[in-house]
Design goal:
The protein is α+β, with helices and mostly antiparallel strands. The strands form 2 sheets. It has a 6-stranded antiparallel β-sheet with strand order 6-7-8-9-11-10. A hairpin with a 4-residue loop joins strand 4 and strand 5.
Length: 304
């Protein structure tokens, strides 16, 4: 299939809202059952050959939750071979939540998400158990979302190979519903006014690169990059043609619209050039050792 196929936000926004909340139901389990990692690296999902996964978690029993986005089902599986599978077709969020709760109980997994609610969404005060509003699930759109996610995942993996410092995995965040890779410097950032989630995520200076599918405030899919804390003058740095600095929440995002990338002569090269330019802008302005942290083609061996 083509690289970066069409996936306009308006064409699947209702389904996206449902998928986002289903992902958050599963994400709540991941948050409670996984060993804590720095910067919350234990919480996001990873891409599989059929959808997305929590990866193994828990100890007694060890289990995973997988969203199969080709057959459109949710599988809770234990390493002793047991599995409970639930169809995602035609089900409101409340029913999916109930099925996950029942699956955990059937498999004797002690994780309580009975009263869980969405995180940072307009209906954050409503329990998943009471959400009968979000029930749209267009199978073609959901599969296309996973396909685009998989393609972006590999481009980010390639970009990751150009940096030898501390780097996050390429992972899919269920709270903001983006896929991202973050590069770190060793500088500690003190944020006494920030909430605990933010303080842990940004306890070191970072430059993050990623992709999101659009939302009500920016209704278009796009590639992005930001530097935090943002160095002065970042928004004046040049970006490749078609990319811009977007003022957002008192800081600036480097944004390359998905449509610009997908219609480029070489879409992969266009995205990599964008990520590299945005990284160079942030790293240079923040005083990182750009040359010392460079890693050509993922190789650090000095003999090569």
């Amino acid at each position: 299939m083509e690289l970066f196929p069409l996936i306009p936000y308006a064409g699947w926004s209702d389904t996206l809202a449902t998928v986002h909340r289903v992902a958050q139901v599963v994400g709540r389990v991941r948050l409670l059952a996984s060993p804590r990692r720095n910067h919350w690296w234990n919480v996001p999902f990873h891409v599989t050959g059929r959808g997305i996964t929590t990866r193994p978690m828990g100890l007694n029993p060890t289990f995973t939750i997988d969203l199969d986005l080709l057959d459109h089902r949710l599988d809770v599986s234990t390493i002793d071979g047991r599995r409970v599978s639930t169809s995602l077709l035609g089900r409101p969020v409340a029913q999916v939540h109930a099925a996950v709760v029942a699956s955990l109980s059937d498999l004797e997994i002690d994780v309580d998400i009975v009263d869980a609610r969405p995180f940072d969404l307009p209906d954050a005060d409503r329990r998943f158990a009471d959400d009968t509003e979000h029930a749209s699930w267009d199978p073609a759109a959901v599969t296309r979302y996973w396909q685009v996610l998989s393609q972006v995942n590999l481009v980010l993996e390639e970009f990751a190979g150009g940096f030898s410092g501390k780097t996050s995995p390429v992972h899919h965040f269920w709270h903001t519903f983006d896929i991202a890779l973050t590069r770190f410097s060793d500088r500690v950032v003190h944020q006494p006014e920030a909430d605990p989630v933010t303080r842990e995520a940004y306890s070191r200076e970072v430059i993050s690169s990623g992709f999101w599918f659009g939302d009500a405030s920016y209704p278009d899919p796009a590639f992005y990059s930001y530097t935090a804390p943002e160095p002065a003058g970042l928004e004046t740095e040049p970006l490749p043609e078609g990319a811009t600095w977007l003022a957002r929440g008192g800081s600036h995002l480097a944004v390359l619209p998905y449509e610009v990338a997908r219609t480029a002569a070489d879409p992969r090269a266009a995205v990599l050039a964008f990520y590299e330019a945005a990284y160079a802008a942030g790293a240079t302005r923040a005083g990182w050792d750009v040359a010392g942290l460079a890693c050509t083609n993922g190789i650090t061996d000095p003999a090569r």
